[in-house]
Amino acid sequence: MTLRTLIYGARQIVTVTRNNDEKFLCGKDMQAIGIIKSDTVGLSLMIENENIIAIGTDDDIARQFEGIEVDKKIDASGCCILPGFVDAHTHPIWAGDRVHEYAKKLAGATYMEIMREGGGIGFTVEKTKLATDKELLVSLVARLKRMLQAGTTHVECKTGYGLEWPDELRLLKLLEQARSHVSIGISITYCAAHAIPKNRTAEEMTEDIVNKQIKALKKFIDSKEINVNDIDVFCEKGVYDIEQSRRILLAGKEIGLGINFHGDELNYTGSAEMGADIGARAISHLECISDDGIRAMASAKTFAVILPHTGYLLRIEMPPVRRMIDAGVPVALGTDANPNAFSSAMSISMNLACVLCHMSLEEALVAATINSAAALGISDKYGSLEVGKKADLIICRCPSWEHIIYQFGDHAHLIQYVLKHGAIVYAKAK
Ligand SMILES: N=CN[C@@H](CCC(=O)O)C(=O)O
Ligand SMILES: [Zn+2]
């Protein structure tokens, strides 16, 4: 059965890419986004089943589809249509908030000081272990629904609050189950190497992950019980060092996972150079990246996933995003949603990226859509509004698309509809 949906009357359609086939944008191209706008005529976007099949003026689309039945019409008068946001980095499955640590951080404690005292990831691992499957699933689904309502139509979800295999496996199974409770798209990243469990060493855990966990994981992937896309490690002084990280990431690559990891965040570790060397698709954070690291990522076209909310709340220096863009590193964005950085709205990450990382509005939008999709390896289907791509989009009531970034924290007021695969998955209450 063919289902057609027509969105009409829009004042702007932000396609993001200018030519079909652009899988990501970098350098000066991040500034030159595709956009159709008119002050005089309405603009339409036609969807057939899950896909966009035409974009044009209301008159052109009406002519093109004359006599063809349309099942649903959405009035977008006075609105702008944008691609749904792709959040390239989150940790959404956990129990036990860390508001008490937020207060400590405001009083001057650093992330690593809190972690060394048994707080941080260790605290969340303990609370997650104590929670029931039902509690974890309910809170996970609630967080994913919040993201969807904030305009995110696809999200990368990391494990990482289990650390040991049985606990990580439980998180993987719950992430898999969440797909049937919420319409957001999910890419799963295996992040057992997120911290060192109590009474274990980094070396022991590296052995465990490389020789046991990844082998066990492969069986679940091969049987199609669990879909895992990427492998991750927290490559950081006092967590996994550069050689341990390399071994874990390469073991993941060996079973077909993409390399997508935390690097050069609190200290320079050489993560960017190592990641580029082993063919990483993406490296997150990069606040302490070196010039050599920038050059290596630019030439390997490894995505830098920028997480401005984290740097902002930890009061650390922002990554050198301007230098990265100028050097040709493809830049993507994420919220980093986790109990340290509690946030789920990409519009807030974009605003912070503009103000604190000196990105332009266009660069921030590119980073939050086509480039985030490419950082997850899915930009052939997602991240821009093009004929043939999935109809993942948001309809915002505002005079021009920039308002979704400019009106800080007001996405709930601006977003009228969110569509996933052509279906309305969120409509603002009238
Ligand atoms: N840096 C490592 N991981 C997360 C923080 C997770 C946590 O503190 O619970 C991050 O990306 O910011
Ligand atoms: Zn993270």
UniProtKB/TrEMBL annotation:
- UniProt keyword terms in alphabetical order: Histidine metabolism, Hydrolase, Iron, Metal-binding, Zinc
Metabolic or biological pathway, per its Swiss-Prot or TrEMBL entry: Amino-acid degradation; L-histidine degradation into L-glutamate; N-formimidoyl-L-glutamate from L-histidine: step 3/3
> Is Iron among the key words of this record?
yes
User: Pfam families, alphabetically?
Assistant: Amidohydro_1 (PF01979)
List, separated by semicolons, the cofactors it needs: Fe(3+)
Q: Which reaction does it catalyse?
A: 4-imidazolone-5-propanoate + H2O = N-formimidoyl-L-glutamate
The EC class name is: hydrolase
**Molecular function terms, GO-annotated:** imidazolonepropionase activity; metal ion binding
Query: Per the database record, which ranges form the Amidohydrolase-related domain?
Result: 81-396
Enzyme Commission number, as recorded: 3.5.2.7
Sorted alphabetically, the Gene Ontology cellular component annotations on this record are: cytoplasm
Q: Which GO terms describe its biological process?
A: L-histidine catabolic process to glutamate and formamide; L-histidine catabolic process to glutamate and formate
Q: Which residues form a coiled coil?
A: none
Q: Which family does it belong to?
A: Belongs to the metallo-dependent hydrolases superfamily. HutI family.
> What is the name of this protein?
Probable imidazolonepropionase
What species is given as this protein's source?
Rotaria socialis
